[in-house]
Amino acid sequence: MHETRLFYTPVWRDDLDVPESNWTLRRELMLNRITALAAEGLGVQKTNFGGWQSPDDLYRYPEFQWLIGRVMALGNEIAPAFSAKQRFDDGILWANVNRRGDFNAVHTHPDAVLSGVVYLKAERREQGVIQFFDAREGSPTAQWRCYMDLKDGTPLTDFVHEVEPREGCILFFPGWLKHWVTPNTTDSERVSVSFNIRLS
Q: ∠ CA 31-193-134 to the nearest 5 degrees?
């Protein structure tokens, strides 16, 4: 039987620590810059409840210029999913530091075609996972559970998708996909760099 997938929502995942032979040094330099910026108090309040979030101009610091280049290169591998001709050529980066009790509220990235996150410091799920929510209006799968017992969820019936953070992992997702970061329940910092990119 032929299947037509309507309005599906992908999340893409890759590992930066595999192709980047000097990942360890680059990660250390990025973490040092984030620590310095946080110490200076150069932060903003957006979706973060507690914790610290930098302004979205990290790309201007030399420690992050390779990262914005890598984000664009990987983003352009995904670009054909959005457009046969256009490519990504504009983006912003910002850092997130979540300590015990800190989390990021449910939100979308309405000014971006493609968004994502790179994990710089994350050792276990208790530091906070990212959860994506069913993009279909009204989360119909949640409603179906009132009428039938869907114990064995599938990609069609699940309404929450969770990704555990891992250092060196990079995720891409459509900017309109609703998501949040669960509270950090440990005494270890969770540090990530988020990004938004747009088509030219």
A: 150
Helix (H) or strand (E) holding 173: strand 169-174
Which residues are CB-neighbours of 199 under 8 A, at least 6 positions away? 79, 82, 83, 86, 87, 88, 89, 113
Domain boundaries, the chain: 12-199
pLDDT, tens only, 83-99: 999 999 889 999 999 99
CATH superfamily of 12-199: q2cbj1_9rhob like domain (2.60.120.620)
Q: Do residues 197 and 91 touch, judged by C-beta distance below 8 A?
A: yes
3-state class percentages of the chain: helix first, strand second, coil last, to nearest 5: 25, 30, 45
pLDDT of 147 reads 62
Q: In whole angstroms, what is the distance from residue 77 CA to residue 70 CA?
A: 11
